[in-house]
Amino acid sequence: MVSCRSGTESRIWTVTLFSGTSVLYASRVALPICAAAIAKEFDWNKTDSGTVLSCFFWGYALTQLIAGGFADAFGGENVLPISSLVWIVLTFFTPQLFDFAYWSGLPLIVLLLTRILTGIGQGNGVEGGFMSANANFNLSAFHIPSMASMVSRHLTAADKGRVFGVILAGSHCGTVLAGSVGSILVEKYGWRALFQFVGVLSLLWYWCLHFVLSRSGYRQPLTPSSTESADLDKKDLLKDRPEQNGHISISGITIASSAVPWRALFRHPAFWAAAVAQYTGGNAYFTMFNWLPSYFHETFPKAQGIVYNVVPNLSIVFTSMVAPFLATRLLNSGKSMTLTRKIMEGVSLVGVAICLFVVPGTSSFVPALLVFSLAMACRGLHHGGVSVNPHDFAPHHTGAVFG
């Protein structure tokens, strides 16, 4: 088993996968940013817009477990390039797919199928689901589980949680990029320009990924057969994960390193607590993610798109980058893994809930923008909480469990 233990290799993996998550989310947020312009051009009503925006998650959610299993079985380094190339190409050709859909006479069916397929390819996004849940292709459901599997295989136990949290924070940088540049492109050149810009940017990242994989030799399937590697992982595991007869235990969940212990996981309340936290937080986040551009455009028509498409996402960029290091600081101060995750996730969920209760009382643009920005900032703390839990209690099956 190849193990990425040097600082240089760790940084290369971090930068490459961080960039990949950024372009992935730039692709994903492109349609919500363009939704108002597309709805005007194709005469969509609210039902049409909601259906096209939401059907992405139908395929996204249906393929999570399969995608994670594929990544663990064949290696994320083999699955990621294939799934990425598909959604990148379909992102670039999204305008043509929309035109074809209306030329075919069956626009809604064609668009729904395209969006469902897109969710599969990008699947289990940063805010997606543990067991949950653009004209790209639903092959994006393989993206995040593949990266989770790669991090689990190529980084030491001490680095996994922090690095994966930083990588996931790339999603919000991609959203800021698409929101800022995209707002200008949509205003000056039309909505089609945004998809082509993101498509070209994603192709450049794909070339970098291919270059890194070919240089490091990580493309071949990897297995946890190396005794030295397995021993190192067990030795590096934190104190509240003692080794017991070849198994790893955290918070009472005992996991064998040979096969995914679904029965043990399904029977333990800690696993379901994490799953519910992931689902509820993800539901709130994706509601804001998909509908904030349309909400601000319709409620405050004089507001600048570049402001409301960027400011809330800047707040979550900051907290999502800080969260992994804050969690590490709590661990180093003597807090247990379980308590650390509870603190980070608890503050995140409660903070988002309070903001969403407050926002209906706002009646002007600036207060609404500030409340939604605070909600997004609270969501960023999730990257030091449940978001990285699969690396804690299933280090050898991160892709499948994250799915």
TrEMBL record:
It holds the Pfam family MFS_1. GO terms for biological process: ATP transport. It is a multi-pass membrane protein. GO terms for molecular function: transmembrane transporter activity. It is found in: Membrane. The keyword Transmembrane helix applies. Its main location: membrane. InterPro entries: MFS, MFS_dom, MFS_Na/Anion_cotransporter, MFS_trans_sf. Coiled coil: none annotated. Residues 1-403 form the Major facilitator superfamily (MFS) profile domain. One of its GO terms (cellular component) is membrane. The chain crosses the membrane at residues 12-39, 51-71, 163-185, 191-213, 306-327, 347-372. Keywords: Membrane, Transmembrane, Transmembrane helix. This is Transporter, major facilitator family protein. It comes from Ancylostoma ceylanicum.
